[in-house]
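Worked example 3 (structure in, sequence out).
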């Protein structure tokens, strides 16, 4: 199956809302999508098959660019279980890792959503804590965290490690 993952365009909004209504009715509206697009234009991805929208997802980044968030993901019911959700996770993680000061990536998950939890854990996300009434009364969420070693830290570790090995000899 040939699935394309690419950035969302404004003309995708209607299809995104239609798809969201199939899986999570009344969860998303055009106004909300416009806000995400204004805030995070390079962090909203779509999955298409033969020109048809079959999935979409969004990530976000805080003002300090130290905390990234996996905000939402949606895959058409007839395309679930085919790795599209994982590819959308990969796209968001890759985009978030381009922020040089990123330290953590966070995601909220309903603890009954075992498929999402399993997929996130496969990418290294670990349970951090539960938050009661996260989305309002009775709408609890589990918070998962993925620590990120940014490129500068990796360079520092690579540079320091050989020196400290030499010093200990």
């Amino acid at each position: 199956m040939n699935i394309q993952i690419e950035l969302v365009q404004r003309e995708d909004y209607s299809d995104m809302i239609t798809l969201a209504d199939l899986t999570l009715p009344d969860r998303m509206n055009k106004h909300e999508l416009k806000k995400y697009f204004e805030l995070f234009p390079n962090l909203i991805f779509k999955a298409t098959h033969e020109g048809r929208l079959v999935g979409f997802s969004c990530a976000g980044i805080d003002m300090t660019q130290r905390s990234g968030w996996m905000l939402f993901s949606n895959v058409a019911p007839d395309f679930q279980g085919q790795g599209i959700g994982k590819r959308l996770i990969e796209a968001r993680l890759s985009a978030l890792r381009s922020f040089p000061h990123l330290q953590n990536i966070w995601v909220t998950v309903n603890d009954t959503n075992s498929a999402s939890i399993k997929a996130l854990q496969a990418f290294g996300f670990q349970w951090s804590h539960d938050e009661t009434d996260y989305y309002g009364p009775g709408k609890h969420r589990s918070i998962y965290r993925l620590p990120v070693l940014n490129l500068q830290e990796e360079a520092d570790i690579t540079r320091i490690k050989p020196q400290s090995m030499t010093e200990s000899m």
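Notes: Residues 121 and 127 are 9 Å apart (CA to CA). Strands lie at 3-7, 44-49, 52-61, 67-75, 104-109, 126-131, 141-147.
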